[in-house]
Amino acid sequence: MYSLKEKTSAPIGAASQPILAAKRRRQLHPFFFHMGPLALCLTSVLLIGLMAVLYLSQVGQAVTSNQQLQSTQTQQNKLQRENQDLVNVIAQAQSPTYIADKAKKMGLIPANPKNVQVITVKNLLPIQNDNQNVQP
Predict the structure, then answer these.
(1) pTM: predicted TM-score of the whole model, two decimal places
(2) Mean pLDDT, range 36-57, rounded to an integer
(3) Which residues contact 90 (CB under 8 A, 6 or more apart)?
(4) Among 27, 44, 74, 80, which lies 20 to 30 A Cα-Cα from 11?
């Protein structure tokens, strides 16, 4: 280890190193530390004003987005209600009692199964019912 005498007998150049470091630090300070109080105050007010404008711009965009979202949700709810109403109308129109009542109002009567004639056509494909998944 070192004795106390060795520590105190450090070279003279070592003492100048902290002074050089301090000078370098002073050179690296940003310019606004050398600004006067009036210039510093004006710079601060300008920066605060810029931040306020940016904040208000962001708030305006958020409000506009929120209004668009609400109008889209309102439109979606309206379309869902219309869709449900149409599904109910279709289900009612496909019910056998509704069809029978409409047929009676039109003057149609049920056919006698003994008098019904069935015609068979060769190479005719059956009609597929695509509306089986619509339910009220």
Answers:
(1) 0.47
(2) 93
(3) 131, 134, 136
(4) 27
